[in-house]
From TrEMBL:
<dbReference type="InterPro" id="IPR007666">
    <property type="entry name" value="ADP_PFK/GK"/>
</dbReference>
<dbReference type="GO" id="GO:0090529">
    <property type="term" value="P:cell septum assembly"/>
</dbReference>
<keyword id="KW-0175">Coiled coil</keyword>
<keyword id="KW-0808">Transferase</keyword>
<dbReference type="Pfam" id="PF06005">
    <property type="entry name" value="ZapB"/>
</dbReference>
<protein>
    <recommendedName>
        <fullName>Cell division protein ZapB</fullName>
    </recommendedName>
</protein>
<dbReference type="GO" id="GO:0016773">
    <property type="term" value="F:phosphotransferase activity, alcohol group as acceptor"/>
</dbReference>
<dbReference type="InterPro" id="IPR009252">
    <property type="entry name" value="Cell_div_ZapB"/>
</dbReference>
<keyword id="KW-0418">Kinase</keyword>
<dbReference type="GO" id="GO:0005975">
    <property type="term" value="P:carbohydrate metabolic process"/>
</dbReference>
<keyword id="KW-0460">Magnesium</keyword>
<dbReference type="GO" id="GO:0043093">
    <property type="term" value="P:FtsZ-dependent cytokinesis"/>
</dbReference>
<feature type="coiled-coil region">
    <location>
        <begin position="4"/>
        <end position="72"/>
    </location>
</feature>
<dbReference type="GO" id="GO:0046872">
    <property type="term" value="F:metal ion binding"/>
</dbReference>
<keyword id="KW-0479">Metal-binding</keyword>
<dbReference type="GO" id="GO:0016301">
    <property type="term" value="F:kinase activity"/>
</dbReference>
<dbReference type="GO" id="GO:0005737">
    <property type="term" value="C:cytoplasm"/>
</dbReference>
Amino acid sequence: MESLDILEQRIDRLIAVYTELKERVRELEEENQRLRENAEQEKLQEELAALREEREKLRQRLSKLLQQLESLGV
């Protein structure tokens, strides 16, 4: 009977460890998703900043071209 008790205890510990590991995997998957979303958000913010900078440069160039045309009387 003692060996059956030992086996039962081992199975109970195994189930407890399995449950803990399953919960930890779920937590890590959620954290991984958050990190991916943050990385994507950072990438989009960098792209937006680059596009805004490019837009400002284009505005300056267009403004310069318009001034040149105005000075020609066109």
